## 1
Amino acid sequence: MSHAPENPGAAAPTPAEPAPGQGGLTRSLSHEQMTMIALGSALGTGLFLGSGAAIAIAGPAVIVSYAIGSLIAAIIASAAGEMAVRFPVRGGFGSMAARYLGPFGGFISRWSYWATTVLVAGAELVAVATYLKFWWPELPLWVGIVVFGAIVLGLNAFSVKSFGSVEFILSGIKVLAVIAFIIIGLIIVFFGLPSHPAEGLHRLTEGGGFLPNGPASIWLAMAVVMFSFGGIELVSISAAEAKDPVRSVRSAAKATVWRLSTFYVLSLFVVMCLMSSETLTQEEGLSSSPFVRVFSDVGIPAAAAVINFIVLVAALSAANANVYAGTRLMHSLSYEGMAPRRLRATTARGIPAGALAVSSLGILLVVVLALFTESVFQIMMSMITTLVLVVWGLILVSYISYRRRDGAADQFRLLGGSAMAGVGILGLVAVFVAVFSSATMVVPGLVAVAFFAVLVVVYFAAVRHHAQLDESAFQEAHDATGAVPTVAPPQRRR
């Protein structure tokens, strides 16, 4: 369905899409690579390391928390995917927010998400450094962060095609590892191994039972659980560099939704069946991966080392994907007058080098924090959760406006449409309240809220009067697909 501009006479000609080296991105990602990029971002530290904190809150009932989180995440990923199928634009859902909610919505969503990706990249590198302590306990956190941070920046600085290839390999390793973990874990639970009897399901109800901390703990754990799903929206960001955007976004969105839901729920089921929540929530257990501890404590030390290597790769992959996402968001912001114009410049390989440099600030931040505290990961997780909840809320609000104006996409759509998006918003509000119900998350959460306040001030003081919709992005998406209709942007109020 195509709409003509409300004021055709005032419409400015759409600028040509710049070429690589002049600000343009290159469409070189296959649909397999896009799927793995999305999985690479979402399937990371939140599951492998952060799940320990969720277990401490809810015990075995954390399985229910992850099931609910999977449903909310599926709604968000499907909504972002439907919009990206129709408009595979640079800036992804941020550009959609600018089109359907106005420049302010685009500014807040993209700057918030940029901050999220920057912090997530840093948190993932903290996790990498933490996993290294499995082999080298005395190794300072900052050393691991610096070494692997340099590797991630190098991967992102070469070319998007190389980035996609490396991320495909890294994500493939951890996807296969998670599948193997689930299969082996289920065998140990129900059948046993020659050297290890079947564990059964008794640990799900022993001690304080399935709900040792009461039904409310399921909701409180959501404050930690939703951190695990950060990255589900990345398929929307990477759509602007897809060879075949419609096919790639459609397949990537579908795969991300069902694979993540299956991986998270079954993985936590295995963990809770093989180890008691009391053991997993001991202080030392929260500084290492529950996944590693499972195989170590059931008497398979070699497997523990292998799993530790895998979760290290998983964290490295997620850091890699988030640096990529932050770089593309900053590049998009520069086109709409919401970031310095110099950040739109790209190298001959199509890499936004200036945007990449700015998006490396998260790595610098965690290096500094690691010099003063070992609780870097918990601090970062709380800030990230607060930021990403707002981003996800804006995605769903943009989606509701999109469906109201333009109807559903033909190639891929969210089941239930706007009504299901409304359910997702209610879920996000509940999680937001849970964040500020946790004593350990309040202060970092307030820091994130202060960041939003700064964004609002900056927008109205310095950005409002020259922010503009990047029409060239939508024209480029139209040219790339040959079938995506162009839609008139909302008229700005003066």
## 2
Amino acid sequence: MGKPTGFIEYLRELPADRSPTERIKDWKEFHLHLPEHKLREQGARCMDCGVPFCHTGTLLSGMASGCPINNLIPEWNDLVYRGLWKEALARLHKTNNFPEFTGRVCPAPCEGSCVLGMNNPPVTIKNIECEIIDHGWAQGWVIPEPPVKRTGKTVAVIGSGPSGLSAAAQLNKAGHSVTVFERADRAGGLLMYGIPNMKLDKEEVVLRRLRVLEQEGIVFRCNTEVGRDISAQQLLNDFDAVVICTGATAPRDLPIPGRELRGIHFAMDFLRANTRALLDGSAGADYISAAGKDVVVIGGGDTGTDCVGTSLRHGCTSLLQVEIMPRSPDQRAADNPWPEWPKIHRVDYGQEEAAARFGADPRVYLTTATRFEGDADGQVTAVHLVDVEWTRNDQGQMLPKPVSGTERAVPAQLVLLAMGFLGPEQPLLEALGVARDPRSNVKAEHGRFQTSIPKVFAAGDCRRGQSLVVWAFNEGRGAARECDRFLMGETDLP
């Protein structure tokens, strides 16, 4: 695959990003592009490694190693190296319904398991994936492909996020009539309202794909919440099968003194309203502005980073991102060997932008909030913080212990809680009557995806818990396969 000596001849190279000080002035995607000859060189770095790990999609130490949707990475890297872009796109679409999404927002566990990465910078898999699909769109190769014939079977998909879209796309390919129910005003779920525009453009990327899905015959019913606008029982009565893809949207709260103060919001409320305002061209009643405010983001993950990037574009006065975990090492630790996902320190786009604007990375580690302080009008004015150390209790559990003498207060007129999600919202699951596991997720075995109700399937974060977008695509495709098998007695879906 690729050029046998390519990994020796060419260094890993990524496209430049727009300058942080320039890109915070708008909501456009910030990644630039490599010229074609450079992309072909990067494809040439893909080794004929014998046993590639990049497309294995296994779990090691609880994290993905290789691609969860089993992208045929060495094959399409070789095709790019040879300049066969249309063939590369066909190979990519065999395993991935939406490479324009994964090519932009996936953290690339494939690169973490690349064989070359044992002792050299790994192959630039994610960037090549994105360039293949963007090239395909530009050339007009991505066109609606409705099924030749319909089966007469109907399927309801609840939720239009990553797992819902991939399930709907595959079930439609099989010839079933698919209706997707989405409670928001636009389809796309997390892809539309959970990821900011500068990471994933809504008009040019998300809506473009949604239009193709509609042209292929999928029906999207937005502003329709199952359990409120249409009953769960009606769905069970009206459709031959139902696929639950509602995600894990119940946020983890921070019940400390002062939590009731105004100006303290869940991260997703902040991000969702911002994207809606951008798409609508005006701010709605739910819009939350960071302009002119001292902003404290509690949580160090991707959602927290998105809050940082969004606050900067609003024009915040200061930024602090609070992380209760320790800073990761700069290099793989001895207990984190290849091909595990490398648990190393990374500077994401938001931190890079904050450093350019304010002079330093906004993150503080091994720190937690103890209380919120407010004024006489009930508006938050400060967050009280303390350093922590992780210690083991009598039951062997690791718990954060406050470090005496490290208490301090920082100004804040806007606090954003980005501490992850507890699981799916429960009312719909209760209305459908599906069994749940001890973590409150829908109980359905991975690989089968069938719930306690035979005609009801579940996929994505509502089944596995908060996870990567690419795992949601894996599960949506898998649930579609098993749903098709249930409806038809057999299946040709992968």
## 3
Amino acid sequence: MKYYIAIDAGTSVIKTVIFNTNFKQINSYSIKNPVLTDKFGKSEIEMEKFWFLTAKCIKLLIKKSKIQSQSIAGLGITGNMVGFWSISNKNKPVRNAILWNDTRSRKIFTNQNIFDQIYKITGSIVQYGCTIPILKWMTKFEKENLKKIKYILTCKDWLRFKLTGNINNDETEVSVYPGDIKNRRLSIKIFKIFKLNTKYFKLFPEIKKSTELGGYVTKSASKLTKLKEGTPVIIGCGDVIASTLGAGGINHNKKISIIGTTCHNIIVKSNPKISKDNSGLFFASLNNTWLETKINVAGTTNFDWVINNFYKKSKNYFDKIKIINNFENKYLKNNYNENSLIFLPYLNYGGSISPFVNLNSKAEIFGILPHHNNFDIMTSCYEGLALSIKDCYGNKINKKDNLYLAGGASKSKILPQIISNALNVKVKILTNSELGALGISFLIDSYVNKTNLKNLINTHQKIGHIYTPNKKHSKYLNNKYQKYKKLRESLENIW
């Protein structure tokens, strides 16, 4: 039996997962990684430490799985996207990696026109932790460090370099540097908009396909990881793309919502046609597809906040799962009672990037009266998340569509049904787990066995329960959505 190892290097957690060649998950192992932050918007990682933790994670996974290293047919990496991972002529980190959620470059971008110009080329709003904005920031504040840089990498590319000694990047990350979304490469036009010297082009590595060979495990990496020297390592892709592939996102017009801490609402597109709403992100994906992605920055964090603030007197206060279960059981008994409260689920410090951009947006609970209690608040929270998903898809989803739902929140007893009612579509639950790692395992197989990626993904997509809209509740939520949208539009100028 042969196996694949997928590395999913998140912002604060590194996870390694091993699959057999039938894509059955055999085992996993994860390690927390400290992120260095401060009140000025810093978000950084010590690069060498990050590599050693990843190597340890691989080693312990192999040990835990009791699998011989020679049985591992291939390895691939996905990771937190963009940011700024720089190395010198001596192949050493120039400084700590700057992560995707670092906001220090914000102080140098005050011209909204720049953002509008970039959106027309990329279909993505400019995030301050993207690679090109950070490069611009480096030219202002870290000129000496900039002089030392030989290559600018991203998270997965750094780890692949440590495993193989080779340096490359892939199309999925280049598209959100930001780069030329249509041609999947760096853009001279974007450099000019940012007033960056094109000499910096040489700092970016060669672009390869995500399914191509990225190199082989070196002797030194073998000692640290217990991988067999010479094990092939594929190029891989960014985490949003990997998770979407793991969720079956390879066919044109497929709609997928992945709900965890954040909520990604994705439409797979067979062309790079950019929408005109100036919100969200647009990614190059595999098999000549693109992902139009509207992100609710706050997903299940809204539920956590409600529990922390309105369930303090509950005897189960320290058991959030039990509180959620009790709430959902009560909700089912009440048979979807109507609720007058409106909850805007923008509960984070970074504001909203979809379906509207407002970095000052805030969560709201509207319509509170003396009789309202924690049950009412939690109900409005569930409805608010569902309505925010409806808001993200807008008129790009209709009753003829299916919405595929994944992530931790998809396991809820009631949320998928509420979403089905709110959007008036069938909701199909994806039962595949560890979506990012699974997506990478598909890419490994495509390289190792020369399999057709589209057929592979479609064959191994697993569907669980299917929810159909409840007409009465759909009517109620549609009426509520009109109020929801008016409320958030009325607040945009005063946030």
## 4
Amino acid sequence: MSLVQCPSGNFEGILKDNCHQFFGIPFAKFNQRWEESRPIEKEISLTALEKGNSSPQTRFRDENHSGVGFFLDTSLTKESEDCLSLNICTEDLSGAKPVMIWIHGGALVTGGSSSMMYELAHLAKRGVVIVSINYRLGPLGFLRLEEVTNGKINSSGNEGLKDQRNAIKWVKKNISSFGGDPNNISIFGESAGSWSCNLQIAAGSEGLFNKAICQSGGLDAVASKDKANKWSELFIKQFKNDGYSIDDLRSCKWQEIINTAKKLRHSNLGNGKKWVFPEVGFLPVIDNEFIKDDYLETYSCSDIDLLAGTTLDEYKLWSSLHPNISKNEKDYIMRRLSKMFQQDHLPELIDAYENYLDTNELGKVYSAILTDICFGIPTHKILTKKEGKSYGYLFSTQSEILGGRLGCFHASELPYLFGVHSKRPYSNWGPKESNEISNNFQKPWTQFSKIGDPSFGDFAWSTYNTSFELALIGKNIRAIRNPFLERYEIIEKYKIF
């Protein structure tokens, strides 16, 4: 057993994989649904051997989409509103090692720190303390109700982000007792976890963390009060259609809240244009409290060092499994594109991408456009906002799943980062050089957490702003100029959103 006494209490963990591991430590609490979480002031004693509950999941399914069922995580713990806990892994309880706090992805509606993908020991053995956290998701963590309930429920829509902030505060306060350096903390996350990291920077670090690693997610996943209120109105309308009243919002079972949320899958926000990812209606809100109107300036001016990047074929996770897109059905694809671009600009846009990709397959063109819109451009923007303090990467390893149909898809780097690439079901994701690929993630990630520079071995990693230089990560690692800048210019020229 591993025993730790810290300011928040006494915790008994387990020695596993040659690391001291602690699971399910509560970091905050709230008394009722949609209440802002608060740090736990009273010291507690806990046998921290089991991972905590996962937040209730809002999983969406599209009848026209074969989906990504193979990718859905079945290893998550029991769903419960009582889900605010964290896990800690360290090779040594003494010393002052750099700290890395993992914020999981899942479009802010699914996921959890208990996922079998997020094994912490492999990174911890690189000389860091690793922490993974849970936070409230979907309508329970990102639904603004203040205006639509006339003040009956005073939720800002940022409760999930504030949960994350309380977890970071807990780590800052207690991590020295686990062998971590409270003055050298990095936050890192993928997809919605990357959105979260960026928004934590934009909200002001308050001296709680020093560095951030943002994988496949920019700073654009945030809603105005007006857009958030429109989404909340849709939710309330559906909730009433389901036979409930506003007075039932807090008293009903959380399952009823989730069921209502699932029915918004094909809703729009009154302008006839659906979300690129329709499930991402539950977004953080510019509330002028946690996220202020000048959050972009706050982000740019922060002293947080940044490492950020994408996978080569992000959107293939969805497009390759969508029958209309994978079969190059022109009418369907053109309808989708017309929601994002002026009709008369589409021929020029498509022609440019066909030439770039050397293909006349419209499905591949669509996938590349959406990869750029959803991931490439947002990442490029955050890298350029952090002048002289940002490093970029591009993950290029092609997956072998489904005969290679998915390419280098969204989240395909995660098994390598967490060292589970040789374990089922991830062992068929990539090539035989998987150990080399894993090292090319783990080494720079932990090196960055230590000194704010991911360079390692003979590879000198240049900051992004000087030459738009990325590190191309695969079985080898080398420097390239961002190859998609011309594509980004075309998108920015013609998009209407």
